[in-house]
Amino acid sequence: MKINKYLMFGVAAMSLGMTSCVGDLDLEPIDPNLESPTSPTLLYNEAMECYQSMATSGNDGAGSSIISGLDNGRGQYTRAIFMMNEFPSDEVIWIWKDDGIYDLNTNTYDATNGNIYGTYSRLFAHIALCNQFLAESVDNENAEIKALRGEVRTLRAMSYYWMLDIFGKSSFTLDKPDGQTTPKQISRAELYEWLEGELVDLVDNSDLKTTLTANEYGRVGKDAAEALLARLYLNAGVYTGTPAWDKCATRCENIINRHRGGGFKESGLAQEYLHLFCRDAKDYMPGGKMTAENEILWGIPFDGDRLQSWGGTTFLIASPIYNGGGLNGLDYGTTQTWQCTKAVKEFSERFTDSDKRWALWVRGKVNFVDDKGNNAEKEYKISNDEYTQWGDGYLCIKWTGLSRGTDYFPPHHPVNPCGNIFSSNIISTSFGGTDLALIRLADVYLMYSEAALNGGADKQKGLEYVNLIRQRAGVMEWDMASYTADNLLDERSRELYWEMTRRSDLVRFGKFTGPNQLLWSWKGNDLNGNAISSRYDVMPIPANIRASQPDFEQNPGY
User: Fold this and answer.
1) What integer is the mean pLDDT of 526-540?
2) pLDDT value of residue 337
3) Which of 195, 325, 389, 392 has the fewest CB within 10 Å, making it most exposed?
4) What DSSP character marks residue 378?
5) What per-residue string of b and e applies to 456-483 under the rule 16 or more CB within 10 Å gives b?
6) Nearest-angstrom CA–CA distance, 426 and 245
7) What is the C-alpha separation between 231 and 275, in angstroms, rounded?
8) Confidence of residue 54 (pLDDT cuts 50, 70, 90)
9) Using CA of residue 265, residue 269, residue 275, residue 279, what is the dihedral sign?
C-alpha cells in the first residue's frame, strides 16, 4: 500500500491517556467491537497512526491533542522539537513572552517549564504508539505488516534519538503500553548503545527499501534510517565522550553513493534550494516526482485540506508573516499571518546578498501602499533591541505555500538572487500543504564534511562536499584555509536554519556553553548576550515526570 497525502485518514481512532507521560501510557480503542488486534487491517491502521502522530497533534483535526501540557499547536511533534532545538539557539526569537517560551528563547528555563514537559510527553506518546504496533504485529506473516515493522521501528528510533539528544537520560521501554508497566530511566550512554544497535540492524539487516527504488511517498526507507544513524554518530562525542567520525563518514558515503548521478551537479541535490520548502516539496520526498532530486531523505507529509495542524509547516509559514508593513500572506500562499517570529541579529549577519538561501527574507526598507491608498514605508532592522517588536529583526521566511514555476517571486525582497522560481498561479490556504523535511541529503554532505575535518574521512573530499552546498547557494567556494570548524558551523546554520538542528550543532562544536560559547542577542536574558551554565547542554528532566516517578534522576545543575 502506498502512502499519499491522505495516508492518515482512514485509520482506526485511538485515544492516548496522558495523566503522566511515563506512568499511564495506555492505548485503548474507542470502539470496543473492533476486530482482533492482530488483524492486518487494524495493524495497518496502527502503523499509519505512528506516521500520523508525527504530523498532527491529535486524531480529531487541528484543534485536538493527544497529550496534556501543550496546546494543539505546540503539542504537534515537530513544533515541540523546534521549541527545544531552535528557540534556545541563535537563530530565532518568538516575540510573545507566553507560556515559558521566553525562558527557552533566553536560556533561563528550569524543570518546571511546561513546554519541556510537553515535549517529553509528546515524544514518549509517539514511542508508546510504535510499541503497541510492534508488540501486536510481532508474529504476523502478512507481507505488508512485516514491511511496516521496519518502518515503525525507524519512527520509534527517531523519537528515542530526540530523547537522547534533548534530555540525555530517558524513560525507556519497548513493551506494549498497558497502563501497568512503568518505563525505567536509562542513561545517555545506555540509550546511545541501544539506538546504535537498533539502527545498524535496520540499515544492514532489515528489508527497508532504498529511497530511489521504493517509490512509496511518505514512508521511511533505508536512506532515512541510515541518515539518522549518521546523525547519531555525528554527535557520538557529545553523547558518549567517544567520537565516531569514521562511522559517521562511512554512513554518509553510503547514502551519497545511492544518490549520485542525479540532481544538482550529479549530486542528487535539488537544483533550487527554496523549492524544498514550498508546496511542491512533496516532489523531492521519497517516491516524489523529482526522482533525480529526491533530496528529502525523511519528510512528513502535510495537506492543507485534510492533514491539518497548527504545528508543522503551518507554523513555519505563518509565524514570521503579518498582513501589514508591506506584507500580505497571500503573496506566500497562506491566509495565516501570525506575526510571531523574527531572526536573531547574529544569525542574519552570517548571510551575504548573493546567498539564495535567504532570498525570501524581508529586510531593510519596504515601500508600499497602505490600506488607505497612501505611500508608506516600513524598515525591518537587523537588530533585536526590542524583544517584543515584530520587524525589530529581519523576517526569516523560508517555507511557503507557493508552487514551483518560472514567472513569480514574492514582492518586497531587497535582493533576489534566485530569479522568478515560483508560479504566479497562487493557491492560498489556512493550513500548510507543504511537506516538512526532517533529514535532507544536503545535511548528509555537511555531516561528511565535518567528519572529514575531524579526521574521520578524506579531507579533500570533505571540502568538495561543502563547496557543493555553497555552489548551489550561489556563494564563493572555500579553499582549504577556509575549511575550518567555525566556518563549517556557520555553513550548517545557513543551509539548515530552522530545521531543528541548531542547538545540537552548537553543543557539539562547544559553542552553546563553556569557555568558547557564542553570545547572541537575548541569550542569558540580556540584549547583548550573557554566558550560560553548562547545565543547558541538555534539558532538565521535567518536574512532573520526577513527581510521578521519584526514582528518576535529574540532569546535573537543575
Assistant:
1) 98
2) 94
3) 389
4) E
5) bbeeeebbebbbbbbebbbbeebeeeeb
6) 45
7) 24
8) very high
9) positive
How, if at all, do strands 422-422 and 404-408 pair?
antiparallel
| Strand-pair category, 92-94 with 341-343 | antiparallel
Q: Are 344 and 388 in contact (CB under 8 A)?
A: no
**260 burial via Cβ count (<10 Å: 0-12, 13-18, 19+):** exposed
Q: How far apart are CA 258 and CA 244, in angstroms?
A: 22
Burial classification of residue 24, based on how many CB atoms lie within 10 Å of its CB (0-12 exposed, 13-18 middle, 19 or more buried): middle
Q: Which three three-digit cell numbers place residue 300?
A: 512528513
pLDDT band at 213 (very low <50, low <70, confident <90, very high): low
Name the 3-class secondary structure at 193: helix
Q: Worst-scoring range by mean pLDDT, 342-351, 368-377, 533-542? A: 368-377
Alpha-carbon distances, residue 278 vs 281, 284, 377, 394, 404 (angstroms) = 5, 10, 28, 20, 7
What's the confidence (pLDDT) of residue 69?
58
Amino acid present at 190: E
Alpha helices in 73-210 (DSSP H): 77-85, 101-105, 114-136, 143-167, 188-205
C-alpha cell at 28: 485503548
Tell me the angle at which helices 485-496 and 459-473 cross, rounded to the nearest 10 degrees. Answer: 40
SS3 category, 316: helix
**Among 160-174, 285-299, 507-521, the least confident range:** 285-299
For 401, phi then psi, to 5°, come to: -100, 15
Neighbours of 437 (CB within 10 A): 25
DSSP readout, 124-141? Answer: HHHHHHHHHHHHHTTT--
Asked if 423 and 403 touch (Cβ cutoff 8 Å), the reply is yes
In 3D space, the residue among 82, 78, 76 whose CA is nearest the CA of residue 101 turns out to be 82
Residue among 176, 154, 147 nearest 37 (CA): 176
| CA dist., res. 235 & res. 244, Å (int) | 8
Q: Which residues contact 167 (CB under 8 A, 6 or more apart)?
A: 120, 538, 539, 541, 555
What is the per-residue pLDDT across 82-133, written as a single tens digit (0 to 9) for each? 999 999 999 999 999 888 999 999 999 999 999 999 999 999 999 999 999 9
